[in-house]
Amino acid sequence: MSDLNWWRGAVIYQIYPRSLMDSNGDGIGDLPGIIEKLDYIKSLGVDAIWVSPFFKSPMKDFGYDISDYRAVDPIFGSLNDFDHLITRAHELGLKVMIDQVLSHTSDQHDWFQESCQDKENDKADWYIWADGKKDAQGNIVPPNNWLSIFGGSAWQWHEARQQYYMHNFLTSQPDLNYHNPIVRKQMLAETEFWLKRGVDGFRFDAINFCYHDELLRDNPIKPEDKRRGRGFSADNPYAAQYHIYDNTRPESLSFLEDLRALLDRYDAAISLGEINSEDSLATIAEYTADNKHLHMGYSFELLVDEFSADHIRVTVEKLEERLRDSWPCWAISNHDVVRVLSRWGGDNPPEQMAKMLSALLFSLRGTLCSYQGEELGLPQADIPSDQLQDPFGIKFWPTFKGRDGCRTPMPWTDKGKAAGFSQAKPWLPVPDEHRARAVEIQDAQPHSILNSYRAFLKWRARHPALRVGDIDFIDSAEDSLTFLRSHENEKIVACFNLSDQGKYITLPPEWDIHTCQDHGLDEVILQDNQVTLPPYGVFFGKIICETA
């Protein structure tokens, strides 16, 4: 692949900086800690890192509430540390992507502090302000029915301005007003600041939330039978509306063109947009069309509770149908959702399932995002209620007590109170079940989840069909997935058993199939083009030729 296309088929390793490695003994991970672990990350066989927010922030949403886009929060280090991170990553051949939160800021940002003073200051319309309206009793109420993802109205009354401001997320995360061209220009400048420091790309958080309907029209109410999906439970009030006026507005496309034009001035810099809309797959296709908007988008379609062969196949095929010449990106875990092994595997998922899920993700057509700890097969941590740090996430995942369970520190060893993550008490506890899967332990086990992950990515890198080839699904046994990856003269068939029961998969008799080796997974039986898959088993075969 040329350097300009490095991202096509790449594997991106997401780092949650609070939890990778603490270098200074304060119990919180930091940028020097990431630098310390770059050799380990390189050993995994990934192509790039995506670093979640490390900007100056009051940390109400753990960094996704930015108070200064151009400053590193002191808990994470300094700009010099970030420059060192870029340099060292590039020495190792790793690309560096960072989160950029463009739709909103912290209420502690200087811009909002000025904007909220009155209606006449220089930044009075940098945020979305609106007068209230009177209800039947004459009380002042929000201007419309828009809801916050974190619960309640998307409007917060501000006494000094005698107006409401809009917040799609927390009340401490006011939304910027992109209908103001000065704001739009400013956010491009904030993005360019990091391009000048050498980043190779951005993961744009909630990118479809930048624009709102200027007429402030009410969102339509959604029927009860339509309320499940988008990562929200049916009883979440946010799921009770069609969100067509508070996000994913048509004006976003023009801004994305400007954003792409900026990125194109910096060699191989790329963009990945997080998209959560009424029809996320359609929005991804629209936001990545014509090679003039985002390079890629990813949605929550594979970050939900539903785990079935049909769901995965239908999701992938639907996006493939809509993308035309664009490129997909897939993730099955991140910092906002229950770890995939618990989400799809329940209370006691077997190790073999962890290996299968990583191989499945890395075999899909597209660029793949792997969340730190997935290479160890970490399950969701059960955090005692008195140690929870993120009460807001409970609204999303009440069964798992919020998002903290997927954000616990990386277990580097099975020793000490912080499992090698810190010399101090860690900001979240490290559960015993994670210690048992620590890096040091798995390093020494040839067939561990970690070494399987490494071996598979090393093997995948040698096969263009798996990195950049086409994908075609083939009907197979219930609870299994079978698809063909093809590029030029290379054709590889992949079979996955998604269940705890053995499966038989019959492949076309005209295929001359040779079993693939060295991919780090257990070998399975192929006889007369019938594959015998054990529980959570995986098979890869190279098709040498097709005979009549």
- CATH class category name of the largest domain: Alpha Beta
Name of the CATH homologous superfamily of the largest domain: Glycosidases
Biggest sheet strand line-up: 13-12-11-5-2-1-15-14
Portion in strands: 15-25%
Protein structure class: alpha/beta
Describe it.
By secondary structure, this protein is of the alpha/beta class. It folds into 3 domains: 3-103 and 181-212 and 247-458, Glycosidases (TIM Barrel, Alpha-Beta Barrel), CATH 3.20.20.80; 110-166, Oligo-1,6-glucosidase, Domain 2 (Oligo-1,6-glucosidase, domain 2); 470-546, Golgi alpha-mannosidase II (Immunoglobulin-like), CATH 2.60.40. Helix content is 23%, strand content 19%. It has helices at 31-36, 38-43, 79-91, 110-115, 181-195, 252-264, 280-287, 309-323, 340-345, 351-363, 432-435, 439-443, 449-460, 464-468; strands at residues 11-15, 48-51, 55-56, 68-72, 95-101, 129-130, 133-134, 140-141, 155-158, 163-166, 201-205, 270-274, 296-298, 329-331, 367-371, 470-474, 480-487, 490-497, 503-506, 511-515, 525-527, 530-533, 538-546. It has an 8-stranded parallel beta sheet with strand order 13-12-11-5-2-1-15-14. Strands 16-17-18-23-20 form a 5-stranded antiparallel beta sheet. A hairpin with a 5-residue loop joins strand 7 (133-134) and strand 8. It starts with 10 loop residues before the first strand and ends with a strand. The model has no long low-confidence stretch (mean pLDDT 94).
